[in-house]
């Protein structure tokens, strides 16, 4: 058997330099099992800091403007516990989404030795990413920000400074859900506080001066409304993607790359970590995804006899997707 490059591009300007397996350096020695994942992207780090700042601002206004000055201690205690619990879960989900490996493919694993170890059969093909020199399993895409190929990549979110992929989609869904809930909760409390202050003296409903109180509440109302709309839309989009087993990237390329989908309930259980339980809403409980086996790196085509025809058709219809890939086919000599 020998390795033959079969995938070519008609657009020469967009064609990356073909990477032979011999040119790929062996993958670096893997770090410890608990190594933290963190993307050093200035924009993403700034967005993550802004996210925390806005949540802490809401925490400040809710506690020191509305709840602590209130004379209704039962109202203050119940809403304080509820709001702080939701805020804690939101920030915990944000940390998990930001610091969890989203499903990065081992960098530099497209070596001759590794490809030979897959023992490819006629009609099978593997795709390599020339940007990170990795073999791309099915449904993996290269992220230009993370500079890695990510399994089941949905999109790169600057607000969590990370890709949303196979391993952290649950945390991103929980983050959007809890942010939407604390936004709704804050808006309801702002409405009740305004009504209370209109009925009584403004100087008695807050420790701050009336103008300062109004400004703080209006800013919180604007923030809560904006985040409620944004995160609700993101939450609905993510839930729809999980239930249909189709990422945003795959939805955009649906016509060019039709594929078989799993049952929606199976996809939901894999994303949230097993059968329905309170752990679905726990950001400290991980999802369940089977380990990628050797066959997971290989893609099957119609037949080895018409391989070149198949890949030429793919280059016509899927140039945007395959412009970052090369393929290696195994044929009998």
Structure summary:
With 333 residues, the protein is an alpha+beta fold. The chain has helices at 42-67, 73-99, 112-117, 169-199, 210-244, 248-252, 264-272, 307-317, 319-322; strands at residues 2-5, 124-129, 134-136, 140-143, 148-151, 155-157, 162-164, 299-300, 326-331. The longest helix is centred in the C-terminal third of the chain and has 35 residues, at 210-244.
Describe this structure in words.
The chain has helices at 42-67, 73-99, 112-117, 169-199, 210-244, 248-252, 264-272, 307-317, 319-322; strands at residues 2-5, 124-129, 134-136, 140-143, 148-151, 155-157, 162-164, 299-300, 326-331. By secondary structure, it is an alpha+beta fold. Helix 1 crosses helix 5 (210-244). The model is unreliable at 1-19, 29-33, 302-324 and 327-333 (pLDDT under 50).
Per DSSP, what share of the residues sits in E-state strands of 2 or more residues?
5-15%
The helix/strand order is EHHHEEEEEEHHHHEHHE
Structural class label: alpha+beta
The span between the termini is 6 Å
For the sheet with most strands, the description reads: 5 strands, antiparallel
**Tally of DSSP helical segments:** 9
Helix content: 40-55%
What is the tally of beta strands?
9
What are the SSEs and their pairings?
Blueprint (H helix, E strand, L loop, with lengths): L1 E4 L36 H26 L5 H27 L12 H6 L6 E6 L4 E3 L3 E4 L4 E4 L3 E3 L4 E3 L4 H31 L10 H35 L3 H5 L11 H9 L26 E2 L6 H11 L1 H4 L3 E6 L2
Antiparallel strand pairs: 1-9, 2-3, 2-8, 2-9, 4-5, 6-7
